[in-house]
Design brief:
15 helices, binds pyridoxal-5'-phosphate, 420 residues, alpha/beta, seven-stranded mixed sheet, four-stranded antiparallel sheet
Length: 420
């Protein structure tokens, strides 16, 4: 058989991941066992439906796999119910909206321009095309969400679905207050914890489960699993119309959510990915994962303090989680140019709008950094301080430092495998 060039390219990508420093806040390095499950023969199996209720034969084994996956996820978050079939975080959100809303209903989410996600009502996403989307944001002076402002907007908009969660917000969320507001206006409350799931599961951040009607997430960011999405229900059981009722309605809500995933927005589930999710959840239940998430946050705090010491402005002045948003406005460099310069030194990060940005999303005034991936490699305080100094050298001195920093980056990365 002819050698396929794709495998050369995969090897090249492996080399890139090994040699460089990964600061993209939404990325991580899944374990060899997670990848083993994701690359397994389970990819051959069709299993439309749910465990024990499939539209295909031969599902005895995948039924057990998916059931275990659900059980592990529920124990990880203290959830009462979960669906593990969503192919991605955005699809989990689409499934929830399809299940709980009618076209044209109003939704209220965190502004994309302030750090929110496309799937929370952006006009280019189905959430903004099919629903009447409204947004809250951060305050300009503090860089933080002001809950009185959220309440004011919610009372004006009266959304059917209130959404909390973000892609570029470095502060924790007041889920209890969000719930009060949701109850005042009769909204269902959705927390999308795509970024922070691993930190929440190990108790490092506030837990949305006791407060939010529905929780969605990805599995590949701080949770360190395969690429994918999940949907969970917490301890109270709202019916599909958005009225919170007692226990009897759990089936109703869970079954509309199941239908929102399949057949609502997907066909057959990816049982190989579901197996990989199950492996990742088991890993996340171990004490070592809790240690890992503590280090993720410590590293983010060390990196943010070192950058502040070097004269950089951070939105909201720091971080509670794994990520930070640097506002480069005062540095005379755009997010786009910063991303490109750092990229040439093999430090990977992404340009990002900062709140009240005057530049376009293609240029931006900011850059987003996260510590989930480097912490998986075993980077600690010393390496964080080093990274801050490299970032400053590259951004303040440009071309002349890029090559030198790149050599230093390679020399350090060489000391760390992808999995510590
Ligand atoms: C990353 C992210 C998603 C989307 O996840 P995909 O798997 O890329 O579809 C959804 N919501 C939030 C808040 C995210 O940060």
């Amino acid at each position: 058989m002819q050698h396929d060039k794709i495998f050369d390219l995969i090897e090249l990508e492996h080399k890139r991941q090994l040699e460089g420093i990964e600061l993209i806040a939404s990325e991580n390095f899944a374990s060899p066992n997670v990848m083993k499950a994701a690359g397994s023969i389970l990819t051959n199996k069709y299993a439309e439906g749910l465990p024990k209720r499939r539209y295909y034969g031969g599902c005895e084994v995948v039924d057990e796999i998916e059931q275990l996956c659900i059980e592990r996820l529920c124990s990880l978050f203290g959830a009462e119910w979960a669906n593990v079939q969503s192919h991605s975080g955005a699809q989990a959100n689409a499934a929830v909206m399809l299940a709980t809303l009618n076209p044209g209903d109003s939704i209220l989410g965190f502004s994309l321009a302030h750090g929110g996600h496309l799937s929370h009502g952006s006009p280019v996403n189905l959430s903004g095309l099919y629903y009447d989307a409204h947004f809250y944001g951060v305050q300009q002076e503090t860089g933080r969400i002001d809950m009185d402002d959220v309440a004011r907007i919610a009372h004006t908009v009266r959304p059917k679905l209130l959404i909390c969660g973000a892609s570029a917000y470095s502060r924790d969320w007041d889920y209890a207050r969000f719930r009060e507001i949701a109850d005042e206006v009769g909204a269902l409350l959705l927390a999308d914890v795509a970024h922070t799931a691993g930190l929440i599961a190990t108790g490092q951040l506030n837990n949305p489960m006791p407060h939010c009607h529905i929780v969605t997430s990805t599995t590949h960011k701080t949770l360190r699993g395969p690429r994918g999405g999940i949907i969970m229900l917490g301890k109270d059981y709202p019916n599909p119309m958005g009225k919170t009722t007692k226990k009897g309605d759990i089936r109703k809500m869970s079954s509309v959510l199941d239908s929102g995933v399949f057949p609502g927005t997907q066909g057959g589930p990816l049982e190989h990915v579901i197996a990989a999710k199950a492996v990742a959840f088991e890993e996340a239940l171990q004490p070592s994962f809790k240690e890992y998430t503590k280090h993720v946050i410590q590293n983010a705090q060390i990196l943010s303090e070192a950058l502040i010491d070097a004269g950089y402005d951070l939105v909201s002045g720091g971080t509670d989680n794994h990520l930070m948003l640097i506002d480069l406005s005062s540095k005379g460099i755009t997010g786009k140019d910063a991303e490109a310069l750092l990229g040439r030194a093999d430090i990977t990060a992404n340009k990002n709008m900062v709140p009240f940005d005057t530049k376009s999303p293609f240029v931006t005034s900011g850059i987003r950094l996260g510590t989930a991936a480097v912490t998986t490699r075993g980077f600690a305080e010393k390496e964080m301080v080093q990274i801050a100094s490299w970032i400053d050298r590259v951004l303040s001195q440009g071309d002349q430092e890029v090559e030198k920093v790149k050599k230093e980056v390679h020399a350090l990365a060489q000391l760390f495998p992808l999995h510590a």
